[in-house]
Amino acid sequence: MSWDMLLGHRPSPLEALRDPILDDLGLRVFVKRDDLLAIPALDERFPAFSGNKWRKLKYNLLEARSLGYEGLLSYGGAYSNHIAAVAAAGRIFGFKTIGIIRGGPYPTLNPTLDFAHRCGMQLRYLEPAAFKMLRNAGWQDSTLDVPCSYLTLPEGGSNDRALQGCAELGLEILSQTPADYYCISCGTGGTIAGLCTSLGDTPVIMGFPALRNGGFLLGDIKDWIEKNNPAAQRNLRLETAYAFAGYGRWDNRLLEFMHDFHQQHGILLDQVYTGKMFFGVFDLIRQGQFPRGATICIIHTGGLQGRNGLP
Ligand SMILES: *Cc1c(COP(=O)(O)O)cnc(C)c1O
User: What separation in Å is there between the alpha carbon of 178 and the centre of ligand 1?
Assistant: First the structure.
């Protein structure tokens, strides 16, 4: 049954957004509701496993099953949606899981780590300097004592199989309503890279890094595109002004925007990724950055489990 949820899913809805400001400016805006592409978490308010984490894990889980891996091991920060997703996937699809967490150990687990722990994930902590060295080494380290029957996924789950899943996101939108502009939140950049490999070369693809000074991601994203589909489009830009105080940080301005957006459109956003991106898109819209007559597709990548961390 769970494997059918992964393989036999229907396209997530593409919904038109109604807002007087859009009519004034002559813009058509759609939201790709990948937040609704969700595998329900067992007894939580929010799915732990939805949106781009669903897309990114799909082919990794199928690979783990077909190669007979016993478990999944991955890396992430204490607020990582990817860690929560791997933990939930392990519980639902029957894999043991190990999460290597940057920093810690923490006297009390935050909601993300607590969720992962309750899903049965074994949490191990690595000091930030060692974590960074592992990242630079491409997540390979013989000293980590990783059981060989575990499939290792990089931080954020961004690997070639994840890009394959995110390419399907692009194909799905093209079969619904193609847009002139695509807007999406970025952490490692794997999702936007996968999207770029499938959208053709006319539209503009705009990434909104959730971390400060995220401009460096452009190199990584281009490398991924080059490796997976060298012919793919490069009409790509990063909007780096909407990271607020940095990854996992937010302020009342952002929370108010998220609240108002939910009131007006009935769509929940999270404060780590999608809230910042939607905030940025509407700011650019108000600045007149999109030409009259343009169609904009805003991709809701899910991440609502992060709302468990809100006060
Ligand atoms: C993880 C995450 C992202 C970032 O994805 P990358 O592929 O690492 O760029 C964006 N949005 C949400 C909701 C996420 O959970």
Answer: 22
